[in-house]
Amino acid sequence: MMRNPEQTVGNLIDNQSVAFIGSVDENGFPNIKAMLAPRKREGIKEFWFTTNTSSKRVAQYLVSPNACVYFYDKRFFRGVMLRGMMEVLADAESKALIWREGDTMYYKEGVTDPDYCVLKFTAKSGRFYQSFKSEDFRI
Predict the structure, then answer these.
(1) Which of 36, 73, 120, 135 is 20 to 30 A removed from 53 (C-alpha atoms)?
(2) Is-contact 77 93, C-beta < 8 A?
(3) Is 20 helix (H, G, I), strand (E, B) or coil?
(4) 3-class SS at 125?
(5) Residues 119, 49: contact at Cβ < 8 Å?
(6) Res 1: pLDDT
(7) Which residues in the chain belong to E strands, given as ranges?
(8) What is the pLDDT of residue 90?
(9) Local structure of 98: helix, strand or coil
(10) How far apart are CA 38 and CA 59, in angstroms?
(11) How many Å apart are CA 85 and CA 2, to the nearest integer?
């Protein structure tokens, strides 16, 4: 049993360069997509990702905000799935919050590019896997 989920899960997340986000499509089927690691996180409750406003995931989250995020540690074959809600944010403050130098490679018009937005995930619960055992936890 994890003594401190926030520390255990947070350490796993901080050492991953990729996150997998899940959404629900128009037919109710799950969709998974690999993303770069979150640009910002607050504990294991809130995560901010960059993405294209025109992306399929954004369209799906606008219809159904139900989401999950999965982080996988290949070296130790362990992972964590966080379940919660995804918000699509296009306000100037949110976009500036996680903007980085070099992002113009993806968003040609800079931080104000209309095809740049922020996905903010808020976790409600999780499931941690390690050593052939899984454990659910609340956030």
Answers:
(1) 73
(2) no
(3) strand
(4) strand
(5) yes
(6) 72
(7) 18-24, 30-36, 40-42, 46-52, 66-73, 78-89, 116-130, 133-138
(8) 97
(9) helix
(10) 20
(11) 24
Tokens in use for 131?
């050593």
Amino acid 2: pLDDT: 81
Helices (H) and strands (E) in the chain, counts: 3, 8
Cα angle, residue 87 at apex, residues 85 and 44 outer, rounded to 5°:
55
Contact present, 79 and 71 (Cβ < 8 Å): yes
Among 2-11, 51-60, 78-87, 96-105, which is the least confidently predicted range?
2-11
What's 102's DSSP letter? T
The owner of tokens 């690999």 is 34
Question: What's the full length of the chain, in residues?
Answer: 139
Instruction: With H, G, I as helix, E, B as strand and everything else as coil, classify residue 116.
Output: strand
Enter the pTM of the model: 0.95
